[in-house]
Amino acid sequence: MAQLIWNGLFVGSFYALVALGYSMVYGIMKLLNFAHGDLYMLGAFTGFAVLGAVGGVSPGMALPVLLGVMVVTMAVTGLSGVVLERVAYRPLRGAPRLSLLITAVGASFALEYGMRTAAGADPQVYPVRLGGTSLEVLGARVTVQQVALIVVAVALMIGLNLLVTRTREGRAMRAIALDPRTSALMGINVNAVISRTFFLGSALAGAAGVMAGAYYGKIDFLMGFLIGLKAFTSAVIGGIGNIPGTMLGGLVLGLLESFGTYWLGGEWRDVFAFGVLILFLTVRPTGLLGERVTERV
Amino acid sequence: MTAPAKAPGARRPRHGTPLGRAVTRLFDDKWAGAAGLAVAVLAPFVIATPYALSVMTSAAIFVMLASGLNIVVGFCGLLDLGYVAFYAVGAYTSGVLATRLDLPLWATVPVVVVVTALAGVVIGAPTLRLRSDYLAIVTLGFGEIIRITANNLEITGGPSGIYGIPGLTSSPVVFYYITVAVVALAVAGASRLGRSRLGRAWRFVREDEDAAEAMGVHTYRVKLAAYIAGAVWGGLAGVLFAAQVSAISPGSFTFLSSALVLMAVVLGGMGSSPGVVIGAVVISVLPEVLRDFADYRFFLFGVLLIVVMLLRPQGLWPHRSREAGS
Predict the structure, then answer these.
(1) Is B99 exposed, middle or buried (0-12, 13-18, 19+ CB in 10 A)?
(2) Looking at the DSSP assignment, which residues form a beta bridge with residue B248?
(3) Is residue A291 over pLDDT 70?
């Protein structure tokens, strides 16, 4: 039982980290960035490449090196997100939603199969594993690496939340989410803020990618597809566009999956997750912490 | 050039170069469908190797899929990213019935229609009230659910799928002609649906849902109708697929396939029946021609989706509205 909860919280924190990017982008420009999961994949591969360039890492240095790599990766995926927005999404900002969604699907495809041609179709093995000794906490086996990853994830989320709620930049983002046109009239550079939002969301996805690579040990070019779906599910469960809600949603989805796997078996885990998504959208489309929206866009 | 007989009462937008207008008139012409059918019928007389026939049959089935998705995405503006789920439901229903109950394949068709329509209702009814992008991601999840379910159930044969599905005929040429006939009917049917009263309601919903609602269109019911029609088209294409390959497995129904069908619809021109047929033929035949580029294929598809949306959002062969002044 304690093990199930712990596993759920651990996976959930990954989901939450990826879901934040979804949620931020959705909140600010009402776009489902289908390519978001693939930025996570890009992060995992960038981390892989950087680690390969660094060379052999002694097990004792694994965590600090990994954190350094994570920072580099966040910069790379963040910039990729900015480029993606600039090239594929910005020109279509006034276009029908359908066009924008289809572009996003195209971007997702281009990233996945671009990576396939660049890195090959076979899974790659991460050079650095966080060797951890396991501890016994309340009957659950907890490894040090899990704790380290959760701490990093939580730190990133707290940082993001502070940024959005306490800074000028965050205020600009919230203003645009409410009303882009009026924000522009009030002197906010809407394009710049959207770019920065993409940077932040994509950087978080990249960080999650590196963490997943170091934890699971294997990466492949399609790894972003499923996690993208899961992240979106998390965002919906918590309330898309709402940052604390998204974090909560990630944890809830992680827990649901953990228990679902226990009850139904691992092969039904994803079916269970998407079933929950459909159920949630039917019953409470605005999520646990979302406000009821009456306007139709 | 000798323009074919002009359809009475058809007013067309007067703009563009004379050549452009002539091309437009040609594209608009009601004989375009007959010409396409003639090409499909004559193709085996040009090349009839088993390989060519199988490619052509697959292309025809793909045309059917695309014309089904065109009802949902093109006519009604609902983005479905899990469209092959219905294809899978059709293929599996038909395959399971045919192999377990020893039914001939054609006898499973009524069941397939009912089951796929039900599948359309099951996924459409709870989600069609939602915003379109939620629908997109729910359908994506639905596609995965169907694939994983087929992968895990015993009756569907698990990962190895179902094999030994009886074909409709032993001759590949005859089967090709059966397929062409069914697909032609399906395309014509979809096209006529698109021009019917219901089809006009679909377009209205696509253009402006709130206005449609205000004008008395029951948008929810209309969207559900589009969804069910698309599901049935996909399911029937699945039966043809099962008959063609005689063995189906979950690997044939991935998100990749859904994305390719969407690609065909977008490339050809959403809402335009001839355009979608051309788009589907291009998407299904091009990879056979460009075998050398196999590794770049899907990357190019992705880039192409973006480029088409940026430069030519209406597709290669756009729908021309009969109502003037669009």
Answers:
(1) middle
(2) B162
(3) no
Q: Which stretches does DSSP call E strand in chain B?
A: 162-163, 247-248
Q: Report long-range pairs for A113-119 (Cβ below 8 Å, ≥24 apart).
A: A113/A221, A113/B296, A113/B297, A113/B298, A113/B299, A113/B301, A113/B302, A114/B299, A114/B302, A115/A38, A115/A41, A115/A42, A115/A45, A115/A221, A116/A221, A116/B295, A116/B298, A116/B299, A117/B295, A117/B296, A117/B299, A119/A45, A119/A221
Q: Which residue of A has its CA nearest to B255?
A: A225
Is A202 in contact with A21 (CB distance < 8 Å)? yes
Task: Output the six-digit token pair for A17.
Answer: 């980290």
What mean pLDDT is predicted for residues A130-151?
76
Which of A32, A92, A232 comes nearest B309 by C-beta? A92
Tell me the backbone φ, ψ of residue B83, rounded to 5 degrees: -60, -35
A95 lies within 8 A of chain B by CB: yes
Query: Which residue of A105, A107, A229 is in closest CB contact with B144?
Result: A229
Chain A: residue whose CA lies nearest to B79? A98
Over chain A, what is the mean pLDDT?
Answer: 85
Distance CA A259, CA A2 (A): 11
Second CATH level (architecture) for the domain A1-283:
Orthogonal Bundle (1.10)
Sign of the alpha-carbon dihedral angle for A203, A209, A212, A214: negative
pLDDT of the residue at B124: 87
Helix axes B31-46, B50-69, angle to 10 degrees: 160
Identify whether the C-beta of residue A253 lies closer than 8 Å to the C-beta of residue A276. yes
Which residues does chain A have within 8 Å of residue B148's beta carbon, measured at their own beta carbons? Answer: 267-268, 270-271
Q: How far apart are the first and last CA of chain A?
A: 43
pLDDT digits (tens, 9 = 90+) for B253-284: 988 889 889 988 988 888 888 888 988 998 88
CA-nearest of A35, A46, A95, A116 to A75 is A46
* Measured distance CA(A227)–CA(A18) in Å, rounded: 8
Query: Tens of pLDDT along B124-136?
Result: 888 888 777 788 8
Using the beta-carbon criterion (under 8 Å), do A98 and B137 form an inter-chain contact? no
Q: Which pTM does this prediction carry?
A: 0.84
Cβ contact (<8 Å) for A105 and B152? no
Contacts of B183 (CB under 8 A, 6+ apart): B60, B61, B63, B64, B67, B240
Return the structure tokens found at A45: 């591969």
Top mean-pLDDT range of A86-100, B52-66, B287-301: B52-66
Spatial separation of the C-alpha atoms in residues B229 and B132, rounded to whole Å? 18
Interchain CB distance below 8 Å, B73 and A113: no
| A37, A60 Cβ separation under 8 angstroms | no
The amino acid at A147: V
User: Where exactly are the structural domains of chain A?
Assistant: 1-283
Q: Which residue has the tokens 């924190």?
A: A13
User: Given an 8 Å threshold on Cβ–Cβ distance, is A229 in contact with B152?
Assistant: no
Q: Cβ-count burial of A266 within 10 angstroms (0-12 exposed, 13-18 middle, 19+ buried)?
A: exposed
